[in-house]
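Retro notes
What went well: the complex prediction finally ran end to end.
Inputs used:
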Amino acid sequence: MRADVTRILAQTRFETLTVLRNGEQLLLALILPLIILVGLGSTDVLASIGALPAGVSRIQVATAGVLGVAVASIAFTGQGIQTAFDRRYGVLRQLATTPLGAGGVIGGKLGAVLAVLVVQVAVLGTTAMVLGLDTTSVSPVGTVLALLAGAAALVSWGVLMAGTLRPEATLAVANLLWVLMASVGGLLFPRDGLWGAVADLTPPGALGTALRAAVLDGAIAWVSLLVLTVWTVVGALLARRWFSFD
Amino acid sequence: MSTLPLRIERLALSYGGSTAVEDVSLTAEAGRVHALLGPNGAGKSSTIACAAGLRVPRSGSIRIFGLDPRTDHTRTAELAGVMLQDGGLPMSARPLAVLRHLSRLYRDPADVDALAERLGITGFASRSIRRLSGGQRQRVALAAALVGRPRLVFLDEPTAGLDPQARLAVDEVVEELRAEGTAIVLTTHDMADAERLADCVTVIDHGRVIAHGSVASLTGAGDGGAPGRTATIVLDDGIPEEALIALADEGIVHVDGSTVTIDCAPDVDALHRIAGVLAAHGTAVRSVEFRGKSLADVFLELTGRSLR
């Protein structure tokens, strides 16, 4: 058991360094969220598109949204693409023949998502504080729960996609959905009306709502967390059934 | 652990609605090289995938040193190293980083630097896997299979795409592993590889074992085996035109400068008639060699000549 944990940690370390040393992954996981954070947090863009509620500072809204985008970057798009190409080149199969095993391969991937998420939160959080984030109104527990539930939901679907589609298809779908999730999916801005109600039942909408509740109102959005948990369970079950190592 | 390194009994495997392996039994013994031969799609790689625990058989049993690779994966993976056909190496990493990482997954790994040196990986260690040639990648994949110091090694087409030098290096590594008592199972399309390296050959086709034995027993070149296919007589000096015409009735005559080679049926009557012609012209014979069928001949006889 202890040896299993040691091996999964070794795999987590290797996968994390692979992501952090890969230019495209770094762009997606850190640089783009940073640009969005600075862009929305230090200009009047949010107010001009009517996405800034009265009495709320723009950096609070930008931080909540960008944390969601960061989760989508690494948990869905980044790990999805990485896993898809690992699968294409037989990396998953090769690792599964080692004592790490198939379970350990997946464990290492989840560990790497968490490790990169920690780096993202540290960098984006620090930048947000420099830009004037009011941390007294933030619920740390609500933020952590939202990040974990969102990462779990998105990684299960990202890995499902990587394990069933061709890598080229995964690359296209993962990038397209990243843009859609960030823009109209409810990650960066809350949506109103019918579309808002529908979006709240999707992973990006629920994650955006949970993060805004935690960062803007210091609250825990239990309903959104429940929505994310349901998506996680469904995605994991489907991945368990359909994910193919080759 | 006195049990066999590998014992596969009546293995059957289906996936995607088609049957990949119908009925394959196979054993591997310590200090012996077992070649698994068969046309494309015969079920070689599928058999290895099952033995490595990557696929769940429909029926049959697989034991690695007496252990089931599915239910006792961690222990069998410590004992068995696998070189897959597609290499399985992460493209963006460098060879030594990959090997060091893999070595951390084993309890008692090999010395990575020594292994890299042995396989000539050190010379291209600064490039990422993506930038390596096919042959260089093959060598890294071989090192990956050996980094856990396995006692059973599966090599799926280890010499595909290798230049003669790299091929020689692989041969030497296989010989060393055999001398150390490692059991080796290798698949190949190169009959010369199998002939040179294998102690034992299993030919499979359409998911079934169709022949099994030593190279000598399969080619009929062993003691008491069937007679060889040809006799080759080599002459040192050129011979007159009329002798060539007389010899052409007996077999295939090649003239290369002053060296004359006659390939003929290896029966006594033919040899007697040829000897008569040569004696009449006073020609000296350099050598007479009886050659058995090659493994390639036997393979084509067993599996047919049509393309798959």
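What we learned: The interface with chain A takes residues 49, 52-54, 73-74, 77-78, 80-82, 84-93, 101-102, 104-107, 141, 144, 148 of chain B (CB under 8 Å).
What to try next: split runs per interface for comparison.
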